[in-house]
Specification:
Largest sheet: 5 strands, antiparallel
Distance between the termini: 40 Å
Radius of gyration: 23 Å
Number of helices: 4
Order of helices and strands: HHEEEEHEHEEEE
Number of strands: 9
Shape: globular
Structural class: mainly beta
Strand content: 15-25%
Number of domains: 1
Length: 272
């Protein structure tokens, strides 16, 4: 993330569950500044033989041993648009990868800068414009960009990165998926009144939260993503009476916030 994203998270304490729940209970919108940018990069071990074809780096383990890695995917989002601007890039070799965690490209690329005619799926690099000819970056392809859920006909827009959305590329939309980055507090069940001198203390525990998942799993075990305009039913919460929150809080398309942990140390195991 860039500085603007980092500062907004820190200023609003969105790095922990309690900070996010504070927005939820206050009915306050999580709204990152327009300068915000997030980047998701994937690196793979490569050999010296293909090193010149990749943006590469040396990663070292604890004993100082170095390993050669190449950049294979780069996914970027920017808050310059209300629903963010999404762009995903991949190394051209990804189209032909096969293995336990690889499936190649299952949907075509779309790059109107590199390709002169619709549907802009020529899978070429725009060397004439970007000045990347003769560099490793001529081996990277823009798989597509996205600024809305559907096209002008209401057809859901698909955009996938084969390394980030392996197994559900054909049912992937950056905006729809990230629109499911959420948090809510579940309805707690009533407990019996019991505390006082001579009775065991009630230990602290991290707050329970509910979040929407990235994808659904079908009966036959397939992972299925979400495309098109969001379904309001996704965000609905059961009513608990006066002042209850009737829907989940969206986290402004930022999935990384769902990795937040509680600032409370769970002490329940200490009293078992």
């Amino acid at each position: 993330m860039n500085q603007a994203t980092f500062d907004y998270i820190c200023m609003n304490e969105l790095y922990n569950i309690e900070g996010q729940l504070a927005f939820f209970y206050a009915d306050e919108k999580v709204d990152f500044p327009v300068q915000s940018v997030e980047v998701n990069a994937i690196w793979r071990a490569i050999t010296e033989a293909v090193k010149d074809r990749y943006k590469w780096a040396i990663f070292s383990d604890d004993d100082g041993t170095g390993y050669l890695y190449g950049l294979t995917s780069l996914h970027m989002s920017s808050k310059v648009m209300p629903n963010w601007l999404w762009a995903t890039f991949e190394h051209v070799d990804n189209a032909y990868r096969r293995g336990p965690h690889d499936e190649g490209w299952l949907i075509p690329s779309s790059d109107s800068t590199a390709c002169s005619q619709a549907p802009y799926d020529c899978n070429e690099a725009p060397t004439w414009l970007m000045g990347i000819g003769g560099t490793a970056f001529e081996n990277y392809r823009l798989r597509g960009t996205q600024i809305d859920y559907t096209d002008s006909y209401g057809v859901p827009i698909l955009l996938a990165n084969s390394e980030l959305e392996t197994s559900f590329q054909r049912t992937t939309s950056c905006i729809t998926c990230h629109g499911r980055a959420t948090i809510a507090s579940p309805v707690n069940e009533a407990a019996e009144f019991e505390f006082g001198a001579g009775l065991a203390d009630h230990p602290l525990s991290s707050p329970d939260v509910v979040r929407l998942s990235v994808f659904d799993v079908t009966e036959d075990g397939r992972e299925v993503g979400h495309v098109g305009a969001p379904d309001p039913a996704w965000y609905a919460l059961p009513s608990t009476g006066v002042n209850s929150r009737d829907r989940m809080l969206q986290l402004d398309f930022v999935w990384s916030l769902t990795k937040a942990q509680s600032r409370i140390t769970d002490t329940s195991d200490d009293n078992d």
